[in-house]
Design a protein that fits this description.
Layout: E1 3-6, E2 9-12, H1 26-37, E3 43-55, E4 58-64, E5 71-76, H2 78-81, E6 93-103, E7 108-118, H3 121-138, E8 156-160, H4 165-177, E9 183-187, H5 195-207, E10 214-219, H6 233-240, E11 246-250, H7 259-262, E12 265-266, H8 270-277, H9 281-315, H10 317-320, H11 322-365, H12 367-372, E13 377-379, E14 397-401, E15 406-410
Parallel strand pairs: 5-7, 8-9, 8-10, 10-11, 11-12
Antiparallel strand pairs: 1-2, 3-4, 3-6, 4-5, 6-7, 13-14, 14-15
Helix pairs in contact: 4-8, 5-6
């Protein structure tokens, strides 16, 4: 059926079927909302108690989200209150098993709590540790991702509470160390439900400013519950995505928030952050003076050593009397020239004697010498030397070479040598 009968009026069965001509009575909407809402299952929720009024054994609470400004009315009936270990207190952090409740007459939506448990310090630390481990496994704390802080930042972004001691400590100590330091300060909530959103907005604004070289997030310490915004996953991821180096300066030592792990530098206090972000001008001037002194001493030492080398060179005889070096070389040249002359003459004498001996030997072996001793050489007409009587038979014309001149003769007789006689 598309419609249902209510008294004498035909009403639409669904909200989509309503119209200006055929609307629902308000009670119908309230009853349908009540049926729909109270059909929701029970769920566990976490929050902080802003109000806690106990009347006639019942507790009427206002529970707020720990990160954003969302709140809900919660009713704890007396039967449930009697089962609790302690009464709810304003400011405490709790988890509750709740079911939505809709009061149709006034359209008031609230939650009925069937169990209420305070969140202890151990539970908070365990949750933070699980989140820290998950982010670590994701790689957000990797040392390789840490950005190097500039030696002297042009402008420092500071996120801190309004008129807080942390702001004064950072500004005062940084100005004492480097008087010319400049700040761009963003005052935000540093605890409570608005802290995370305001800090993230300030962080992104400063990161977008190209003049900001480093960002400090500072707070002057506090209880674990007060520091929970600095362990928010949203804030941690915002810092990890920041392109500008971020310094965490939450003034505490025991329960460090997760912000310390993701920041590029962790400072133990706001004062420590100021000291680590800007150099000390007095130390830098002292360092410059020391370097100048060392440089001056090194230059003077080099000048003294080179002056001593020049004086030593000038004291050498070769430089004090340079002609002496030339004279020594001149004497060496004369001595070598004399030795060369003596050596050449001796070589010539020996060569001359050798030539004379060779000439005498050659002359002694010369055919002319033989001819001079009375021998002659007999040659045929073709110039062949006659060595055997058979070469010149009788009647052969021969030429006779003497020591002086030649003779022409004809062989008239020939005689062979006797056996054994070669002469």
């Amino acid at each position: 059926m598309e419609q249902e009968q209510v008294g004498q009026t035909s009403l639409p069965r669904t909200a989509a079927a309503t119209s200006p001509e055929n609307p629902w009575p308000l009670r119908v909407l309230s009853e349908k909302l009540k049926a729909h809402i109270e059909n929701s299952p029970e769920s566990w929720v976490e929050g902080q108690l802003l109000e806690a009024n106990v009347r006639n054994g019942h507790a009427y609470l206002t529970m707020r989200d720990v990160d954003v400004d969302y709140s809900f009315s919660v009713t704890v009936w007396a039967s449930v209150m009697r089962s609790l270990d302690s009464a709810p207190e304003v400011g405490s952090r709790v988890v509750a098993r709740v079911k939505p409740s809709f009061y149709a007459k006034t359209g008031r939506l609230s939650l009925n709590a069937y169990d209420l448990r305070p969140v202890g310090l151990g539970d908070l630390l365990a949750r933070l540790e699980r989140l820290r481990r998950a982010l670590f496994d994701e790689g957000l704390f990797d040392v390789a991702l840490k950005k190097q802080l500039p030696l002297l930042p042009n402008r420092i972004g500071l996120i801190t509470g309004r008129d807080s001691d942390a702001e004064k400590d950072v500004v005062r100590n940084a100005s004492l160390r480097w008087p010319a330091v400049r700040f761009d300060i963003r005052n935000t909530a540093v605890q409570g439900v608005n802290a995370v959103g305001e800090i993230i907005a300030a962080l992104r604004e400063l990161d977008a400013n190209p003049e900001i070289d480093v960002i400090i997030i500072a707070r002057g310490g506090g209880a674990l519950e007060d520091l929970l915004p600095f362990s928010s996953e949203d804030l941690v991821r915002a810092v990890a995505a920041c392109g500008t180096p971020v310094v965490s300066a939450i003034g505490h030592e025991a329960d460090r928030p997760i912000l310390d792990d993701v920041a590029d530098l962790r400072a133990s206090t706001p004062t420590d952050a100021a000291k680590r972000v800007v150099p000390d001008v007095n130390e830098e001037l002292a360092g410059i003076a020391q370097v100048r002194h060392r440089l001056d001493r090194a230059v003077r030492g080099n000048l003294e050593r080179e002056s001593q080398k020049i004086a030593s060179l000038r004291a050498r005889p070769v430089l004090s009397n340079p002609h002496s070096m030339v004279q020594l070389r001149r004497e060496d040249l004369m001595r070598l020239a004399q030795r060369s002359t003596y050596s050449m003459r001796a070589s010539l004498v020996r060569a001359t004697d050798s030539i004379s001996h060779l000439r005498a030997q050659i002359r002694a072996l010369s055919p002319q010498q033989t001819l001079d001793r009375g021998y002659s050489v007999l040659q045929l007409a073709d110039g062949q030397v006659v060595r055997d009587a058979t070469q010149a038979p009788v009647g052969t014309d021969v030429s006779v070479r003497l020591a002086q001149g030649r003779l022409t003769a004809t062989i008239t007789s020939s005689q062979q040598p006797e056996e054994g006689n070669t002469l």
